[in-house]
Specification:
Elements lengths: L3 E5 L2 E5 L2 H9 L8 E3 L7 E2 L7 H8 L4 H8 L5 H4 E8 L2 E8 L20 E4 L4 E4 L8 E5 L4 E8 L2 E5 L5 E5 L3 E3 L6 H11 L5 E9 L2 H4 L3 E10 L5 E11 L5 E9 L7 E8 L9 E4 H7 L10 E3 L1 E4 L7 E11 L7
Antiparallel strand pairs: 1-2, 1-3, 3-4, 5-6, 7-10, 7-13, 8-9, 10-11, 11-12, 14-15, 15-18, 15-21, 16-17, 16-22, 18-19, 18-20
Amino acid sequence: MTRWLVTNGDRQFSAGSIDELKKLAQNGEINAGSLIQPPGAVDWLYANQVDELVEDLRQQSAGYDEWDDSSSKSGGLNFLVAIVLLAVVAAGGYYFYQEVSDIPDHSELQLLGEGGLALTEMLVTEDGASLRKDPDASSGSLTTLDKDQRLQLLAKRGDWYQAETSDSVKGWVGVKQVVPAYMFADERTRENYDPLFNPDQYVYVKNSSWMLLPADRARNVTVFQFLLQNKSKFPMTDIKLLATIKDKNDQILETKEIPIEGTLPPHDGAMVGRLEAKKSGEPDRWLTENMVNEMATDDGEIWLRWTSGIEVQLESKKYVEANIDLLQVSAVPAASGS
């Protein structure tokens, strides 16, 4: 049987159908600020976001004048937008409490106050989940995780989060094995902080092209030219790209992972290029253009060693297609109070 999960105050219970939910709302056991998780869903909704409950909740609150008095004392915030449900980890599950407050802005990272969940944390949703060495289900397990265990978000790659435990173990966990802290907040806050947990949906490779220059043909080096675009309000870093090389039958011949140094500014883009090593024997570096610009404040001649585009040394020779795509990225949250 499918179940609807309900969290109301410090209680968590379930309902077997939408009709049962409606009865709970009519009896006052669910209010507009209760959290509802539909069957099979990961996200939580406020009860007033469930269409079938809106009318019952409206009738429930009709004529309840105490909210008019309390809202005037708290700055006139409306009941439906003034309640921020804050999540606290408790033995055996989650529980929530209500507080009249402004919706957190970009600089507020702490969702729960002192001792509570930060917006950059997530909770493990199942016992026995593994923190793996690599973002692959077949990769070895670094440690076994407990339900409700806290993890600190580091980066995202595909369907995996790179995370760190409280005892500094770093590894990878499946996105379906955790729930991000921001999911317990209101809709506006969830929208504001979505780039933290889904940064790959806000960073794009634009105007990508590749070429095999005559001078590089003997070395079998392909040059990629492209721009990285950040469409979020968070700086983006820990960027890794994936070069995919294919033959005439569209079969993948090889892939190359390319780490990029530097940060993408919010709502901005940057070219990526090669910084030639200053000393013989040192490796070249792949940097964002804005990072080179920052380095130029201490080294005015750095631009003489900078070339847009990145060179990729390949093993395959008979290829007809080369693509560059985003593989991994991490959003940089603002420091508290900034």
